[in-house]
Structure formats: C-alpha cells, structure tokens
Amino acid sequence: MDFEEFLIKVGKNIQKVRKEKGLTQENMDEGDYAVPVRTLQDIEAGRANFTANSIFKLSKRLKVKPKDLLDI
C-alpha cells in the first residue's frame, strides 16, 4: 500500500464512522473539537495529509479512540 492509498482508506474509514454515528460533515464543524467542513471533506476524500491534531479532534468529536480511525 502506498501513501495515497493509505490516505484514501483512512478517509473512508473516518466517513464510515461519522455516518454510523449519524453525523453530517456540517455537524462536525460545531461544538467542542470542531473540524472545518472543508478540512473534513479533504480528509474523507483522501486529498489531505491529516495532522495528529485533526485525528485527535475527530476522535473526540466521534467519541472513538484515534486508533479506531486509523485501523484500516
């Protein structure tokens, strides 16, 4: 697996978890640990090299462990 494929798989996993929690991308841009919609769109599409800060915020917002988002 190359790096681009890794980003795509992690992005799809994040999207899957978000949808399982019944949240929209817009919901993720609200409240504590908000992630901007555009950033989330890029991460979920595999276009962004996400940061540790983004994974931390996403895991807190989705109420999962960071490893759950990276486990592909």
Please tag this protein with its features:
single chain; Cro/C1-type_HTH; mainly alpha; 434 Repressor (Amino-terminal Domain); DNA binding; about 70 residues; XRE family transcriptional regulator; Lambda_DNA-bd_dom_sf
Can you give me a brief rundown of this structure?
Helix content is 58%, strand content 0%. The protein is an all-alpha fold. The protein is globular, with a radius of gyration of 11 Å.
Structural domains: how many: 1
What is the terminal separation in angstroms? 11 Å
Percentage of residues assigned to helices: 55-70%
Counting helices, strands and paired strands, the structural category is mainly alpha
The top-level CATH class is Mainly Alpha
Please indicate the percent range of residues in DSSP E strands (runs of 2 or more).
Answer: under 5%
| Largest beta-sheet characterization | none
H/E element sequence: HHHH
At the third CATH level, what is the topology name?
A: 434 Repressor (Amino-terminal Domain)
Rounded to the nearest angstrom, the radius of gyration is 11 Å
Mean pLDDT level: 96
Low-confidence runs of at least 5 consecutive residues: none
- Based on CA inertia axes, which overall geometry fits? globular
How many β-strands, per DSSP?
0
Protein name: XRE family transcriptional regulator
Pfam families: HTH_3
Organism: Leptospira idonii
Domain HTH cro/C1-type: 14-69
